[in-house]
Write a structure and sequence with these properties.
With 485 residues, the chain is mainly α. It has a single domain, classed as Sodium/glucose cotransporter (Up-down Bundle), CATH 1.20.1730. It has helices at 3-24, 33-38, 45-56, 59-71, 77-98, 108-113, 116-149, 154-200, 205-215, 239-255, 258-265, 270-305, 316-324, 329-364, 371-395, 402-426, 432-452, 460-484. Helix 4 crosses helix 12 (270-305) and helix 17 (432-452) runs antiparallel to helix 18. The protein is globular, with a radius of gyration of 22 Å.
Amino acid sequence: MNSMRWFDLTVIVIYLVGITLFGARFRHNQQTLKDYFLGGKTTPWWAIAFSIVSAETSTLTVIGTPALAFDGNLGFLQVVFGYLLARLIIVTLFLPHYFRGEMFTAYELMERRFGTSIRKLTAGCFLLLRAMAEGVRVFAISIVISIILGTDNIVSIFLIVCLTLFYTFEGGMTAVIWTDVIQMFLYVAGAILSFFVILGQIPGGWNHVAEVAGNAGKFQIFDFSLPTEPGFFAKPYTFLAGIIGGCFLTTASHGTEQLMVQRLLSAKNEREGRLALLSSWGVILFQFTLFLIIGVCLYVYYQDNGLARPAKGDRIYPEFLWNQLPPGIAGLTIAAILAAAMSNLSAALNSLASTTVMDFWKPLSRRSRSDAEYLKIARLITLVWGGILFAIALVAQQINSVLEAGLGIASIIYGALLGVFLLGLLFKGPGEKAAMAGMLAGLITTLYVRFGTDIKWTWYVLIGSAVTVGVGLIVGMFDRQKESA
């Protein structure tokens, strides 16, 4: 490895050490579970907004989104437009319930509405969902590491997990949010910088990109195919699939999943939670557009230079950064990708720990404990989840698109999860038995759709939630008939 590569590695190491120490400095603020899991509800809304963006982004987004445009077009933006519709639904339907009293997790709301069994079921679904999806995201780090070191270096992945674990363990939700803010600015700045570097290496600049990419249909955003057309549901990025799929996916992820709800619960009040969620969409739109345009530029760069596409599309963007950017800048942009990975991993660790403690450990505990004792338990469980995610990452092999794999895994469980929340918030009749029957039916249906049909992931949440609500209403109706008989 030449001296220039060592310089890049030094930049990466300095960043990793710096962000870890920055996050760990929040340890002195952690005195209670409210501090550890909700940041003491003192975080300003704009920081929560950036943290939402950072949690919504991951290594999957940073390396997977350019690959989508490289192989296709800008059609993924149709899904992003659905994200806005979802945010409007969440601030109208979900947020008012979350800010009635003090909640630590989203699943406390389900206990209020149905009972303790459904709280444990929804919390358990989240733990399974987040562990599987986050395991894929941790695995995505190996793609970046393999490009830097020329091998799938498990030790390096282990190091990233340990560093993230350290500041999450020490600083709790406060560390998660403020490191999210820094890391979001870093990976967006790295993407902007890489865009101009790529453009500078294409003779003719943007005009040439516009001509070549335009002729190849790379700038197409909308696909107004209709459900009556053959193969419609096998296409993930049509206007209807994007708007409906993106809306249901984000309503589930931001409205029912602890990873996001925990950030909203950290806001000082409902108004600030609303501001944080709505304003985050503008940043998300800019971010996805930027990464897709980078993919378009890389397509033109590969075409002009007669380069062969890597076997895995997810390698296209990080390989260019590492091999073509000037020393120092390459290290900074790779550090930015690792920043996205650490940001999402820290959020997942804290939300997994909060759900485990608040929805399982504390309710099942046979004796009362002080906040100091529960804080120790929370930190220990954070470590345990770090080990579980690392183990899942080791078996997450043979994945062609880490972005679509992560979204697909999440969408399988999101349908049942969103469905039971909608059943509880929109309908007063169904009870706990109806809710559990609906969730089971929704999950089985979505698994069949995933593994038994050609229907793409953008439809999973809609199908799963519709079945959950439908079965829940039917079972609830029979229960009421039995009671009145």
